[in-house]
């Protein structure tokens, strides 16, 4: 694949320019139409080409071009309406006056159709956070500020780890939502999801973010099942100079778990262009702070009746205490769990994040640009998945090579991850618990018998078999069993933590992944060649190269790679005097392990009069199983976790010779009852073996979605902006786990009845349990609607509000076969801004509220946990200091400091208060 890409790039380098090109200079001055002041940093580009520049401190610009006249210049600036002018002769005296823009009428988006178009006429719902909104967000980072966008759900799992999603089936680290940074997939190959913005853009380099809520597979492939977030960095040709931002803050105010803690974020960006031919940029960003504490100690033990759970339950399994998951039912006593350790003693809450970026841009001609970019990220963070995980010194590297023109691009990139010191605190607690247990003689036992020995000590003490120990007292029995326990903070405890944190695989708590992702894609716009129809085509190749060294996948002695490809075609046409726009697209994707997926999309936009646009669309989508879904092979004692591809289970009887787990349970209960009533075991087997059912589990395949949407976007009286939509989606083939039990003997006899020998093996526990990845046939639906309003008042005031309603319908499906919806029914935002309240002083305020809902996740053993409704206010005030080319900003989020939990088992999140100072436009 690499050789092919190099060949394509080399060919592209010799694409000839126009034979009729002219050489000359186009230049002039850009001013503000109202104040008549010159505009520094305005962008000037040539329509249909890549050549362009920015104005200097005196508002002047100059472009050396080699194109035939006439040409069209596109002039834009932050806070100004975009303007196009036609240049028919070379001149250095062009004067352009830009008018301030107060509405979204001229906003341009790319994500909706993969080509530039006016946001008002987008064929699908799209939201945008522009560079002004990025600068003015009250949030501590632009990524956190995305939560003000309509339809977007944000879940905080840690101070520097936030997960985003749209339209349901949310979670932390969802693999159903695509995040792109400059067209590059930001997921980690081993985790198969984007780790928030841990390896994304810095605030100083972020130019815009566009959001497509809902299925977008027709243009973006399998990961865009729930939507796409497309983030764009600043072009070094257009944004030059040195920028430095320092941000100091505090969190944990009035936190009962710890004292108030400081946090800081230092960011630097430098970009320089030479003769409008070569440009480069570098970015450095470092963040450090104290993470939020996860302190939910609710008892979630499923084997204890709900009424008997709580602090006095001897078998309690507290959510954020680890080690107490190990439990046993002791005859004559009942269920007892081991004494665990609180998360705070097992996890490092000192989080940080380093981002480094460098890019070189070379304009081979006015319409051909080559780009090389390198990204490096390193971070420590905590997040909630099937357990609470500590991403410790995790690194991600990306290399991007791109060649682009005004009508095409060819892009190739690779992503390389290294989990380094990451680990599972829950497993760590269990491992530490196995290091100190004593037998009844007071001798320390080996870890492999520690749990059994601890329970035997507990039993002996509780039953009064220990001299001097009061019988029938759970507290005293626990204290006796815990003799020798390593206490948090002691040298012994810390030594065991360090030991097991760095042991990877089942023998320790460490997590190992050094997986890679290779991707190449291209796109060509045929609109200039085909006059009666706009045609866009593209395709991509992708390869996962997995390596967990046998700790998760069966890749210790063999290579696991997954290849896939996709191609799309989009046709669009303006009809009825350009009032009706019809867009149709189709995409075909093929993963080597699955049948190909065909995903069409049809949409239309009707604009009967200026500023009023009605849209409707039908979209389809799919999601391929992740590499872990396909190839996990983990032997965990009595059960083997097995990914769902045929290759992964070759030689194992899981699919071909097994019983369903539910039928094994029914058979065991019936056999026990029969023997208990005096029936001889052979007869009990013969009479009840019919209850055993041969499993029929299908190999894994992609999930599917169909979605219908209507919407309206309009501007009334140049004052009120309205955006409303409604959607209805159907889902099927959700990925789930199913447990089967496989005996040594054939499950069926020659006559098709249950084999008695296999039934006997089940009773004698001469069988292996398998947890298989497969799909549910159940169909469910979701629907929702969003309304956004923005009113532009006089004197620069702007009031915006949006609300999103989401509803889920099981349609009679088995809830155990469907992923948790994990989405509030209502989410609302209210935003008030004034960019120029007084001279050089502006402010913005954002109040966000969401309704209560139940959160279901594997961390809590799929037991619902209530997420209470909450609202939080964010605000910032900024002061521009023109003489110092700087901006002072004071702000905070969750100003009322009401701690709220956004995912069950994750920490409670309080207020963050900060002050930042940004120096911009130096050394331009």
Topology at a glance:
Elements: H1 2-13, E1 23-32, E2 43-46, E3 52-54, E4 60-66, E5 71-76, E6 83-87, E7 91-98, E8 108-109, E9 117-118, E10 127-129, H2 131-136, H3 142-145, E11 152-158, E12 161-166, E13 178-181, E14 184-185, E15 206-213, H4 217-220, E16 227-233, E17 241-251, E18 261-274, E19 278-290, E20 321-322, E21 327-330, E22 334-337, E23 341-342, E24 350-365, E25 368-384, E26 388-404, E27 408-418, H5 425-433, H6 450-462, H7 474-481, H8 491-501, E28 516-525, E29 534-546, E30 560-575, E31 580-591, E32 597-609, E33 612-623, H9 627-631, E34 633-636, E35 639-642, E36 659-660, H10 661-676, H11 681-688, E37 703-716, E38 720-732, E39 735-743, H12 756-763, E40 767-775, E41 779-792, E42 797-809, E43 826-838, E44 841-850, E45 853-855, E46 865-867, E47 870-881, E48 886-893, E49 900-901, E50 908-909, E51 912-922
Parallel strand pairs: 1-7, 13-16, 35-40
Antiparallel strand pairs: 1-4, 2-3, 2-5, 5-6, 8-9, 10-15, 11-12, 13-14, 15-16, 17-18, 17-51, 18-19, 19-24, 20-23, 21-22, 24-25, 25-26, 26-27, 27-28, 28-29, 29-30, 30-31, 31-32, 32-33, 33-37, 34-35, 36-39, 37-38, 38-41, 39-40, 41-42, 42-43, 43-44, 44-47, 45-46, 47-48, 48-51, 49-50
Describe the structure.
With 924 residues, this protein is mainly beta. The protein is 11% helix and 45% strand. The chain contains 12 helices and 51 strands. The protein has a 22-stranded antiparallel beta barrel. A 5-stranded mixed beta sheet has the order 10-15-16-13-14. It has a 5-stranded mixed beta sheet with strand order 34-35-40-39-36. The radius of gyration is 31 Å and the shape is globular. Residues 1-20 have low confidence and may be disordered.
